[in-house]
């Protein structure tokens, strides 16, 4: 399979290079190609090389920096003589993620327009979504060199599109999945046993929960086909609300609560879209909110992507968390799980520590009593010693004084009386 990677732009920054490397790595993984991007700074030269590529290459990737992506889409559409039209999926994402951008503005229209007949390659928030064109046996992928959104576009959009469009790479994909499974069980995208047991718990208790409409709901639909019939216990309510200026957590709570209110299920749930924020060091941080709620309470959990974790992997981790929360609710009737109980070994260890503390306390008390006894004995001994010494001195002094009085006394002689 012949692959050609072409990039049109004014300058090659570190972010542009990193985005190009992300695309190259994905295509190398699935198409076994080692092609690198060729950078073009001239539109005329780019168009000439594109014309040559169309005649001979199987897969053509056309990319540019985010700031130029809107006119670049028009440029590519014109080159292939295709009309542009609004895409419903991009419109839905843009309205949910950027309510401040009005639909009648040029900025909004530039984002939602893609060539007629093309397949959208969605970003996590709709902004700079790419698209794919297929003609006969040839594929053209048009992508933004945006490192903040490219992970979602590649993992969810490009890879899935290639798998559907190129049956020959399905075997390669199965080999990759098997390798990942053998390397680590942690890469299992979802906890199959957890989902099965949760569904059974809900069936046993005759319970169900409603879930709001979000961009990540397709992942749960897919699980319903692979594992069990989730429609028995999940009410896919279709409830949707625009995010507006709401913080992500408040948005997730409103979705879960709205799903509950629009159904007969005792609780509602929400698996939010993948949100991204830029940290001070320039790195991108991804997170998802998982929420279950009734009319009085809401339990919302914020889950961050681990190092190297892709958006789909984060979503599957969030699905596992959602089923844990639902299972706990089905067993206890409470939205918030009870505090973890200690094991028998932990209890014994705590008791041993407490017993040791009591022994030490008793030893300290006994030692203190003994020490006080010694001190009191010394005080008493000294005190009585002083008393005896004082009394002895007084007695001796008194005896001496009496003796002196006796010695100095002039007694009369009886003969004088006669």
Report a brief summary of the structure.
With 418 residues, this protein is α/β, with parallel strands linked by helices. The chain is 53% helix and 17% strand.
What keyword list fits this structure?
alpha/beta, disordered C terminus, 6-stranded mixed beta sheet
Please explain how this structure is put together.
- By secondary structure, the protein is an alpha/beta fold.
- 53% of the residues lie in helices and 17% in strands.
- The chain has a six-stranded mixed sheet, with helices on both faces. Strands 9, 10, 11, 12, 13 and 14 form a six-stranded mixed sheet that branches. Strands 4-5 form a two-stranded antiparallel sheet.
- A hairpin with a 4-residue loop joins strand 13 (284-293) and strand 14.
- Helix 1 (14-31) packs parallel to helix 6 (147-165) and helix 8 runs parallel beside helix 11.
- It is elongated and about 110 Å long.
- The termini are far apart.
- Mean pLDDT is 81; it is low at 382-418.
